[in-house]
Amino acid sequence: xxxxxxxxxxxxxxxxxxxxxxxxxxxxxxxxxxxxxxxxxxxxxxxxxxxxxxxxxxxxxxxxxxxxxxxxxxxxxxxxxxxxxxxxxxxxxxxxxxxxxxxxxxxxxxxxxxxxxxxxxxxxxxxxxx
Length: 130
Known about the structure:
Blueprint: H1 7-17, E1 25-33, E2 42-43, E3 52-55, E4 68-70, E5 75-76, E6 85-93, E7 100-112, E8 119-120, E9 126-128
C-alpha cells in the first residue's frame, strides 16, 4: 500500500520541531559536499565558521504551509577568517553537536572567501516533511 502524510500532519510535524521552542535553538550547518538522509557530506571548516544557532521561535520559523516550513528571518554567519570553499548544501541540527534533522542542496552555490559573510535571507530555507 502506497501513501503519504496529509498536509495537516506534515505541517504539525514541522511546527512541533521548528518554532515550538523545543529544542530551544536549531543549528544550521553549511556544507561543501552535500550530506544524504543518512548524514555524511563535508561540513565547512575554516576560521570563524560554526553552525549558526537560531532561536527556535515563530519569528524565525513561522507556521508551516502545505508541508513546508520557511525561515522568517535572515540567518547571517560570522565573517569568514579563511576561505570556506563553495557552499552547496545546508542541514539543521537540534544542538551544536546534536542530531541531524533535515538537509537540502542550495539552489545557487556560493564560494566564501576570507572576509566574506554568508547569509540566508528570509524565505531562503524551505524545509519539507514528506
